[in-house]
Amino acid sequence: MKITVLGSGAWGTALAQLLADNNHEVTLWGHNPAKAETMQRSRENPLLPQRKLHERLVVTADISCVETAEMVVFATPSFAVRSTAVLAAPYIKAGSVLVTVSKGIEKKTHRRMSEIIAEETGNRFPVVALSGPSHAEEVVMGQPTGCVAACVNKDAAEKVQDAFMNTLFRVYSSPDIVGVEICGALKNVVALCCGICDGMGYEDNTKALLMTRSMTEMARLGEALGGKPQTFAGLAGMGDLIVTCTSMHSRNRRAGIHIGGGKTAQEAMDAVGAVVEGYYAAESAWSLANDMGIEMPICSAVYAVLYEGADSRKMVMELMQREKKEESSWI
Ligand SMILES: NC(=O)c1ccc[n+]([C@@H]2O[C@H](COP(=O)([O-])OP(=O)(O)OC[C@H]3O[C@@H](n4cnc5c(N)ncnc54)[C@H](O)[C@@H]3O)[C@@H](O)[C@H]2O)c1
Question: Which helix (H) or strand (E) holds 128?
Fold first, then answer.
């Protein structure tokens, strides 16, 4: 199949490599012409020095490369998904399946990535969200990995499942695109929070408490938006939460560690030097939860630290001193 991957960062490159390994004809589009040209010539992405580019993988900055694709994968940071969809839309051919692997919720509109892509392409194509515990650095090295392809259109989800799946990359299908995308966006906020706690010197008990109670918050918001409970216990939910909150591959966690160690949010992002999706997702999730009247105390605490300069240690104490609650209902 002819497939174009839009976004030549770590994840776009790792997936383009995987798809080329699966014998698809793959083009990788990057928005920066000089960088695309260097990648095409040097046959490497400096973000993933572990592996040379597949010999049949073509890198370009010419968006008309979408013209021949039967599948188009959006792999830019979430803030660039709308502008990339606007650029690509005129070239996408009838019958194509679109895929989003970007994780976030748009600021102000609170749109999920699949909604943005559908909107900017005139609702003419099925849009599938592919998500799960999958660091680019490990996928590119062929470490066994699992993800979920979610779409209300079963044929489209299965087409994506078939295109990406191989003996080292297992893909499950799901109709719950709402749950899958909400999990993907919110787990980055939790990873930032876990990093902040790491940076303050808190250890395993604190992390387990945070991850578990955050999962309750994620499910509360996701289910209110129409997501299914089992998605939150699945690969895109608990799976991605575990991988993001516990690994040093996670930029969100690394940014959090800097903040917990005393840096401001901006200084932490500068130190990480790459897109920290959790920073943007924290604001979107906080305002979405407020609009919907959903209680998300951990997300609110992260928002206060990132956007209002609140003291991390004081926020932890505030969370610990909230009124007593039941974990399971008594009735
Ligand atoms: N890295 C991973 O392991 C991983 C895994 C799963 C999902 N994701 C998600 O994939 C998305 C991309 O992440 P990444 O790790 O590849 O990021 P990255 O920082 O490695 O790369 C981002 C790329 O986007 C490009 N870019 C920046 N501004 C742009 C614009 N305005 N238009 C088009 N392109 C632009 C940059 O040049 C860069 O090539 C994020 O939403 C992330 O959450 C990443």
Answer: strand 127-131
Q: Which domains does the chain have, with CATH numbers?
A: 2-175 (3.40.50.720), 178-320 (1.10.1040.10)
The per-residue pLDDT for range 198-220, each reduced to its tens digit, is 999 999 999 999 999 999 999 99
Model confidence, pTM:
0.97
Q: CA 232, 82, 165 angle in degrees (round to 5)?
A: 50
DSSP for 204-263, please give it.
HHHHHHHHHHHHHHHHHHHHHTT--HHHHTSIIIIIHHHHHHH-TT-HHHHHHHHHHTT-
Ligand 1, atom 21, residue with closest C-alpha: 9
Predicted confidence (pLDDT) per residue in 248-259, tens digit? 899 999 999 999
Is 187 part of the annotated catalytic residue set? Answer: yes
Tens-place pLDDT, residues 93-102: 999 999 999 9
Helix (H, G, I), strand (E, B) or coil at 196: helix
**What does the alpha-carbon distance between residue 42 and residue 39 come to, in Å, rounded to a whole number?**
5
Residue 215 CB contacts under 8 Å (≥ 6 apart), including other chains: 232, 237, 238, 241
How many other C-beta atoms lie within 10 A of the C-beta of residue 291? Answer: 9
- What is the Å distance from ligand 1's center to 130 Cα? 14
Tell me how far apart the alpha carbons of residues 85 and 4 are, in angstroms, rounded to a whole number: 13
What tokens does 98 get? Answer: 């679109």
C-alpha 60 to ligand 1 mean position (Å): 16
